Amino acid sequence: DELDPLVFCASQDNLLVIDGSTDEFTRYSRINGLSGTNITALRADAPSQTVWIGYANGRIDVWRNGTFQAINAIEETPSFTGLKQINSFAFFNGKAYAGTN
Question: Which domains are present in the chain?
Answer without folding.
Answer: 2-100 (2.40.128.630)
